[in-house]
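Model the whole thing, not chain by chain.
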Amino acid sequence: MSLTRQDVEKIAHLARLAITEQEMPVYVDSLSSIVAFVDQLSKADTGLVAPMAHPLAGQTQRLRPDEVTETDRHEKYQANAAAVQAGLYLVPRVIE
Amino acid sequence: MWHNRSIGELADSLGRGEISSVELVRHFLARIEALNPALNAVITLTAGPALAEAAVADRRRAAGESGPLLGIPLLHKDIFCTDGVRTSCGSRMLDNFVAPYDATVVANLRSAGAVMLGKANMDEFAMGSSNETSFYGPVRNPWDKDKVPGGSSGGSAAAVAARLAPFATGTDTGGSIRQPAALTGITGIKPTYGRVSRYGMIAFASSLDQAGVFACSAADAAIVLGAIAGFDPKDSTSVDLPVPDYRAALQAPLRGLRIGLLKEFADGLEARNAALIAAAVAVFRALGALTVEVSLPSLPLSVPTYYVVAPAECSSNLSRFDGVRFGHRCDSPRDLMDLYKRSRGEGFGAEVKRRIMTGTYVLSAGYFDAYYLKAQKVRQLITAEFRAAFERVDVLLGPTTPTPAFPIGAKIDDPVTMYLNDIYTIGANLAGLPALSAPCGFVDGLPMGMQLIGPHFAEARLLNAAHQFQLATDWHQKAAPGYAE
Amino acid sequence: MKDWEVVIGLEIHAQLATRSKIFSGAPTAYGAPPNSQACLVDLAYPGVLPVLNAEAVRMAVKFGLAIGARIGRRSIFARKNYFYPDLPKGYQISQYEDPIVGPGALEIFLDDGTSKRIGVTRAHLEEDAGKSLHEGLANATGIDLNRAGTPLLEIVSEPDMRSAKEAVAYMKKMHTLVRYLEICDGNMQEGSFRCDANVSVRPRGQQKFGTRAEIKNLNSFRFVEKAIQYEVARQIELIDGGGKVVQETRLYDSDKDETRSMRSKEEANDYRYFPDPDLLPIEVEDAFVDAVRATLPELPDQKAARFAADFQLSAYDAGVLSASRELGAYFESVAALAGAAHAKLAANWIMGELSSALNRDGLEITASRVSPQALAGLLARIVDDTISGKIAKEVFEAMWSEGTDADAIIAAKGLRQITDVAAIGAVIDAVIAANPKQTADYRAGKDKLFGFFVGQVMKATEGKANPAQLNDLLKEKLGGGA
Ligand SMILES: [Mg+2]
Ligand SMILES: [Zn+2]
């Protein structure tokens, strides 16, 4: 199956990606060919096979003791941020 | 020349005081300065810190400490976070990102006394099979500078192949260590999923990513794997099993080793490639190994399975790059939506955006069952078939890649053709199996690799088989013209 | 005018009272400077990974056992994907299929004395988001991620509630329960316990549910009641006016006392849930469940039943006194000292004088200025007729303000009752002598004047005359009439 421009615009919005006018047809094209390629999975007979989410079957989640191990390093961590004020990360105003 | 010595030999020389770590580091820094401009394998050089760490290593040796990696230089794939050093993941998104912490792999090698020379180029966010998607430009193959080195760990592979470092780290999500190792004529191993910690390794596809090693021989790879493997409480998927002595295991004879030859790998294999694999099989038979024909009927579906699962996980893993706390932020965003869309649109390259969109699509309402869930079921089938095969054989042997290194630009505009480069390597990632690629000859003067795949946690067996093969052959000793001298 | 039935389901978010966050070692304390408690994992730094907090799992299982729910022996974490500034990873780690707590139920008691069973569909573990702040920022929003990663237990009810009152009763009962279990501090001002209400209406008798609106982030019982009342009225008015209710997320504005649509949350909520590959399935073994069960305290309903049985209290009194572990403990120690026979008296004083004094000064029962021992001391004086109930209130006020015990105050203020027949008789004689006309009228049959004489005597004795004795003596001395 192939994707329409509208499909790609919807996906790009969900993924929060700005796609330029020039890029758009390229993505419609390549995403369509990728989807067509993976469509061959539909032919596989998976019957009652359970989906696999993790390569090591039988492994279960390890639990961490409830201990505070972290200290305040916000200055070091915020050195990578483009916009910070009074310890807060800044984004364009969000109204609700 | 120092750059032609194995890690073992270098450690002995350091131990005997024939050379200091500082001198060794200077030697490799000089090679990088002289040879890297033509290769673009190294994108960040940390000469100052490297010389300082080398001096520390020399003092540790002087104080009576030893250790196979104490004072040995290396390069890290730029996907591993390095405290205080730019960690770009080959992306404009992280061009300005200085990691505030060390990945566990980096910390482990640091405490072993290994000395980081710098960071290696890579496909952007490890998404690529040719190292052409890097924001820092393509890496060139030392065997032919018009050819790709493979990817995504192309910088690490090209650097080791060009003897710019005795070894380098890499990551392998669908073949990103084995494929470039094969295309540059070196040895690369992807361990079992969970064998090496993923903490501090920037995630591409969390259920497939695994850190590994590039070196000039299986013996060297064994030394490095021993240093980076092990349980890490910071990674819930890391496995709490003791790390065997990979080095000691190298010597075991191969008599009686059951090698499985995959029907699916033989089908349609190009004649010259098939001939190299047949020759390798003959070497193993001569070493006493037995061969068995095995078939994994679902294996041909591994590439489409991978191209659903990996993009799905990547689309979610890369959502954190939003221009707020780190990474690229667009100029004067109009509103929040604009901040997100332009920061991400500008920060990510074409292939990364393509995979994020593919993953978003296969997870979205109405498509989840048909794609994501279906792919995870096929993955289960493939894994079960591998499990069954390993009840009959000890290792599987086959090609690492369908072809030798291809020209830069040849496949970059055709994603599906590019994806098919990983046709032989992806299966091991889907099933979380350890796999290794070692040089096994040449096609058109370009190196080719053979792949050994083992059951979970059989790294020692793979390294042992490859080492015995390398004792009987000299493919791994062939360096690209101009890089051996 | 149609008869409407209201249908309400609640999603309660309770912050679990762990020291560290659900997936990181950062502290969870409230009110720290911005981002001082947000570590690399909470900030979603590249390369970091989540590791699950054992205490969060223990608390979730404890809750499940308390509501008689099935415990998910193998539960899964999933990623809920959406972009928002307070969600650093671009996804929330939550549970979708296979939550840790399966179906259970909670019984609520209503004002009319009836009770009702409210189904709990599920309860799952997830991480809290950060906070957006606007004050003092020129057309920007500031993000504080201290709260990001705080463990939450999301408790989802069945649509079993039929009025705002029932919804509040359910929420209060849940609030009582989580504090009993000591898994949540219940601090609603700090957002430790908050809820979303799904509200719809349908013509009574109709099977099919009406379209529901979800009212987000209600952080007080009053707001829950008012928001639901407003929303119900809005929906009925809308439908009666020929309109249709749209399924949407709404916000309750407590200043305007109205709910309004939250468009921001509307568009594109395709969350693309999938199992989080960074986390493995949580296995809960029998031994673990048994160990947690062994730590369960006496639950509110059990305590109330015991109070009613052991102390002959009404269901209502027993319910009030078991509303919190602390209040229950206070009552039990007073009752122990006063003796079970006087437990009802103790209950009346705790629910009356004591709680109004606590409310007046805004104190918790644990900070009461009158200790259980002191209150028991006061009750003893009522029981042994040293003071009347009326005088006792005066003594209590003094105890509350001065912090001394009943006997000291009774002595200091000379509030001891006059039980000396001769003394009371003398006062009566004086009153009769001072009021010849009233005396004559009474004796002539004006019975209702009796109260006048009681009043005069009490006035003269400053209320200290023993009421019973006064009655008998007065009748005797006035004679005639009655
Ligand atoms: Mg709190
Ligand atoms: Zn929730």
